[in-house]
User: Fold this.
Amino acid sequence: MKLRVAGVTIAVAASLVLAACGGSDAGTSSSAGSAPAGPFEFEDARTGHQAVSIGTAPKTVVAQSSVAAALWDAGYQVAGAYGELAPGADGRLSFQAGSVDLKKIQVIGKTYGEFDTEKYALMNPNLLIDYTFDDKALWYVPQAQADRVEKLAPTLAVPGNYRTTDEAIQTFVDLAGKLGADTGSDALKTAKADYDAALKQISEVAKSSGLKVAMMSPGKDALYAAKPTKLPEGTTLKNQGLDLMEPTGKSKDTDVFAQQSWEEAPTYQDADVILVDARTYEGSKADLAKIATWANLPAVKAGQVYPWYAAAPYSYRSYAKIYAELAADLTKASKL
Assistant:
């Protein structure tokens, strides 16, 4: 598995597994069958930023799971998806799949590196949509199959980098509208209101609590501390007044994470709260508990370690839940 972060892709230990949570499809009002008759055009995020233009609006759209989920919440149901779509031990999908209903789509792949090209071809696709993080390759399309996938239908890369979650979400609302979704729906307006309310809650608790927060992706062999302003959710939270710590370790200016040894973990003694990568934490929690420098951090000892939903779908619905949960977590946390 690889970690998706704003601007980079970093490998993590193979022993880490995905965290999972679920969702429903309420509020998804449009489908591929309701696409407009006119041409489709949207800027591609790969080198050159050329527009992807299709003479008639695509009706059979396949997308990477987080992309598909963001479009789903914006009112557009894709015909197929690939990515993190394997149910967890509890039978539910990863939070990365958002509200996507597997009963309503064709599943092309269920994890990183898995893409059924034959199944994809049989769908007669009109468009494939995925992220790009290097401005060159599609994130979840295996490199060995990329050439064939490109020949089967036009492909669109959306940016992996955004300044804030507001900007990221708007990208997918715009894209869903281009595909035929009703982006003025009551469901979308309600989700936006919930999102704004959750951010207001975070702003209020940030001001009243004075909590110092670190964002991390702890692994068995190394600690990855995130640079908040390199992440859309980090910048958004800082804009709400949350005191997010910068990594104490050295890194390049362009790096999203500072990779540090576990001997350096005590440099985060000042953190009152630690937000950890929800994709990997549950699977690595038992191993981390054996690392003394982690277990002895004040935030860990106080039980003030909460999820950071990296790679969650960029939708108002998804982030309204994420930010509301974070506001609740921060409200119950204490200065240490």
Summary: The CA atoms of residues 127 and 233 lie 28 Å apart.
